[in-house]
Design a protein that fits this description.
The chain is an alpha+beta fold. The protein is built from four helices and three strands.
Length: about 70
């Protein structure tokens, strides 16, 4: 039985699976596969660091305080 992914289930995790990352970013898994998002391969498994994801989001955001000069 699969556990339903919620923000509470991924809140404390440092590394996220593809499906957890897609949920976290609000993307479909297929879109995630095509996006140029930093990830790590562990064997056949692809995992994403939540800290790196947050930095990637900030670096790729348009407007807002993160990109003000």
């Amino acid at each position: 039985m699969k556990t339903k992914i919620t923000l509470d289930t991924i809140k404390e995790k440092a590394m996220l699976s593809r499906s957890e990352t897609a949920f976290y970013l609000g993307l479909h898994v297929n879109t995630l596969d095509r996006a140029n998002i930093p990830h790590t391969k562990i064997g056949r498994r692809t995992v994403y660091s939540k800290q790196v994801l947050d930095a990637w989001i900030a670096a790729n955001s348009i407007g807002g305080k993160a990109n003000e000069k």
